[in-house]
């Protein structure tokens, strides 16, 4: 069905017949996210309109496509498309969403008995590919554990113990850095103290009475009493982690969750975990932001700006990516719009053209040549005198 749909879409686009459709057909592309879904969803929406545009040869291919199967596949792939959009969000961290979304997609690939055979094949293929190709790293587990709404691992409880051990190991590594910074601040802020010596007077010795009998009785009592139980000593790292796992505080707004604000507000309770969160949540969940950056570089480096240095280009890309944040902080008037930039560029080109025209006029003006010649004669006569 996929190959037949792709063939019909390519033929209709090549014959320029899609102007008669309510929507333009989208051809499948290997390099575009959700390329198959975008092609199938538009094809499904204009499915009934295509019958009037196709010739007899394409109508035979068109008749082999099952509309019910096409509807089921589009509905099934809509979950994948929504997951890609969630992970491609550039306004907030998304690394903590990778593990639960992967498990959700794997659960969606479970085959049911009353489904069509074509949908079963699609589910079997995608479920196997998700399990084999989508690898989960340690950072995914730590990020999931550091989100207050996902720390109980209800989507995949078999990975909770591993995530806790990974976070605890990372906390012990970061403890040395935090303790060094804290000790430096404490040493600089503590006032100098003076040492004092004190002498103690020898105490008077009391007479010993029946030392042998008391020691024997003490040994006997020690044998019959319960021995003290040694309780394991928990470190500050373990106490902080247990306190966070036992906390019931969650983020109320789940769609636009701001996990960085949560750790900023609770940094005094969990300083080590908050320190780690700033580094973990800075990792993007997918490479769509990198692809957008490549597109921005292509639009920035034009034929007139091919000599930009690497450092200056990085600064331009940083400003372009954080333009909305900078506008909110400093105001939109501080940053020119694309129309203003085009206007300035046109004015600059017009001024350059005017300067070049004026220079040509000066060089071609005979009065200027005559004046320059007279000045030269006067200068030579003065030298001869």
UniProtKB/TrEMBL annotation:
GO-annotated molecular function: protein dimerization activity; zinc ion binding
Record GO cellular component, one term: nucleus
Top-level division of the source organism's lineage: Eukaryota
Keyword set, alphabetical order: Metal-binding, Nucleus, Zinc, Zinc-finger
Subcellular localization, as worded in the UniProt entry: Nucleus
Compositionally biased tracts (Basic and acidic residues): 376-385
Residue ranges occupied by any HAT C-terminal dimerisation domain in the UniProt entry: 240-323
Disordered: annotated segments: 184-212, 330-385
InterPro entries on file: HATC_C_dom, RNaseH-like_sf, ZnF_BED_domain_contain
Compositional bias (Polar residues): 364-374
One family name in Pfam for this protein: Dimer_Tnp_hAT
Principal subcellular localization: nucleus
Keyword Ligase: no
Listed name of the protein: HAT C-terminal dimerisation domain-containing protein
């Amino acid at each position: 069905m996929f190959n037949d749909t792709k063939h019909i879409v390519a033929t209709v686009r090549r014959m320029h017949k899609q102007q008669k459709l309510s929507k333009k057909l989208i051809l499948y592309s290997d390099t575009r996210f959700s390329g198959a879904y975008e092609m199938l969803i538009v094809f499904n929406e204009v499915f009934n309109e295509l019958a009037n545009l196709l010739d007899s040869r394409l109508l035979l291919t068109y008749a082999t496509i099952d509309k019910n199967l096409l509807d089921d596949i589009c509905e099934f792939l809509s979950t994948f498309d929504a997951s890609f959009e969630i992970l491609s969000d550039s306004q907030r961290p998304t690394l903590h969403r990778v593990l639960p979304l992967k498990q959700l997609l794997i659960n969606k690939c479970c085959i049911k008995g009353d489904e069509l055979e074509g949908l079963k094949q699609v589910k079997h293929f995608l479920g196997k590919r998700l399990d084999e190709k989508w690898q989960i790293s340690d950072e995914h587990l730590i990020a999931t554990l550091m989100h207050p709404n996902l720390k109980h691992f209800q989507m995949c409880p078999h990975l909770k113990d591993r995530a806790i051990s990974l976070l605890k190991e990372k906390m012990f590594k970061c403890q040395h850095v935090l303790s060094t910074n804290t000790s430096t601040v404490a040493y600089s802020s503590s006032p100098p103290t003076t040492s004092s010596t004190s002498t103690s007077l020898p105490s008077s010795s009391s007479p010993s009475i029946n030392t042998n009998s008391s020691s024997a009785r003490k040994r006997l009592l020690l044998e019959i009493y319960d021995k003290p139980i040694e309780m394991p000593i928990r470190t500050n790292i373990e106490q902080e982690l247990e306190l966070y796992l036992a906390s019931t505080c969650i983020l109320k707004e789940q769609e636009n969750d701001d996990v960085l604000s949560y750790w900023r507000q609770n940094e005094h309770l969990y300083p080590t975990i908050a320190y780690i969160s700033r580094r973990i949540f800075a990792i993007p969940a997918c490479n769509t932001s990198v692809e957008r950056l490549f597109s921005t570089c292509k639009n920035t480096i034009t034929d007139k700006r091919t000599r930009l240095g690497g450092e200056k280009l990085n600064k331009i890309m940083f400003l372009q990516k954080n333009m909305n944040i900078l506008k909110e902080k400093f105001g939109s008037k501080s940053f020119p719009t694309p129309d203003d930039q085009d206007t300035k560029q046109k004015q600059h080109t017009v001024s350059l053209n005017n300067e070049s025209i004026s220079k040509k006029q000066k060089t071609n003006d005979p009065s200027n040549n005559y004046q320059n010649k007279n000045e030269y004669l006067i200068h030579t006569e003065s030298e001869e005198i």
